């Protein structure tokens, strides 16, 4: 078997990454690892096999949400969440929330994201790209999709920041903060039931009250998932993307030379090279499944390393090289199959606009602290990313003569 290539281990990747990811060259396509829960799980490291496993209905998310199932992370999945369902329950729920995430609906949000990005950058010569750029952009976008009133976007961002530890990195604080976020979500749902309005919250409240298509637990879990999954992932991915570009100045200069032309391809390559969520959710085999030389037994758990799949030399030419002009930059960063990221188009649009506007406003972008001194989210976090990313917004390219 030809091993996937993640050279020098994962050394060039910033954290946190799970301890059990193989760091040496030569990992097999499917390897047994021990998760922090103490459970033994199978890890798929290859691109093609990863794709096929993620579409294989013999591997179940619902079985992975059962209390006794082996788990890759100490935080147990909510059995009522969209992410924990198999078809046909999954298909029914996903159809209810799909509409605002279609390419057409997302295109309608782009101008608003661009105006906000420009406002956030205007008139400044320095900024923390996490708390002052990625966070407000991400909060406003997901709140707009769901129908959270504008006056409450900052309140949501503060609650979500503490609940998820996006800039605090503080795990002790997260229990009470999660309760506060859940209470706020409950309040949003009650309001949407009284006055549904046009947005997702209203549509879900109607499905709950009128059609009975949604149970109370499903409704709460869905809103929670959309707010959380739509928030911290985009923030972490933008932070990781900018750090990666600062570490590859020639790639940053290429982007800055034609930001609006290069940004879409740059985003795909950055998603491939530095995926914010390095692993898929856990699946549990419903029956014995042979994967190459390995047999995954019924009841055993399996996870796809999206990071390793993105570096598999059989699927990507010269995978270790960051090349923002790579076409196509194929990756598994949004997963694949039935559970493929619902917000992929939204995330791509946010990243493209945020990066293009940043590169246009500050082609000479420089970090204010050495990148090696950046603080990162804690290893328990499912989503990785820097806690802060202070930069100078320099309008002229380093070394260029101001014109
Ligand atoms: C760069 C940003 C993002 C990345 C890398 C990302 C990644 C992922 C991945 C890998 C999965 C599937 C995991 C699996 O099947 O094992 C997923 C699912 C999901 N994502 Fe994202 N995501 C991002 C942004 C968003 C945004 C902006 C939203 C907006 C609400 C979102 C909502 C969801 C939802 C609802 C699911 C579950 C879908 C289902 O179970 O059917 N994500 N995401």
In short:
The protein is an alpha+beta fold and 403 residues long. It contains 14 helices and ten strands. 44% of the residues lie in helices and 8% in strands.
Low-confidence residue ranges: 1-5, 399-403
Largest β sheet strand count, sense and barrel closure: 5 strands, mixed
The 3D shape can be described as globular
Number of helices: 14
Strand-pairing-aware structural class: alpha+beta
Into how many domains do the coordinates divide? 1
Assess the beta-strand content as a share of residues. 5-15%
Number of strands: 10
The name CATH uses for the topology is Cytochrome p450
Q: Order the strands across the largest sheet as they lie in space.
A: 1-2-8-5-3
First-residue to last-residue Cα separation? 56 Å
**What percent of residues adopt helix (DSSP H or I)?**
40-55%
Question: Explain this structure to me?
Answer:
By secondary structure, the chain is an alpha+beta fold. It has a single domain (30-392), classed as Cytochrome p450, CATH 1.10.630. It has 14 helices and 10 strands. The strands form 3 sheets. The protein has a 5-stranded mixed β-sheet with strand order 1-2-8-5-3. A 3-stranded antiparallel β-sheet has the order 4-10-9. Strands 6-7 form a two-stranded antiparallel sheet. β1 and β2 (40-44) form a beta hairpin. α5 packs antiparallel against α6 (130-146), α6 (130-146) runs antiparallel to α10 (216-247) and α10 runs parallel beside α14 (344-361). The longest helix is centred in the middle third of the chain and has 32 residues, at 216-247. It is globular. The structure holds protoporphyrin IX containing FE. Residues 82-83, 94, 225-226, 229-230, 233-234, 237, 275-277, 280-281, 333-335, 339, 341-343, 346-347 line the site of protoporphyrin IX containing FE. Belongs to the cytochrome P450 family. InterPro entries: Cyt_P450 (IPR001128), Cyt_P450_B (IPR002397), Cyt_P450_CS (IPR017972), Cyt_P450_sf (IPR036396).
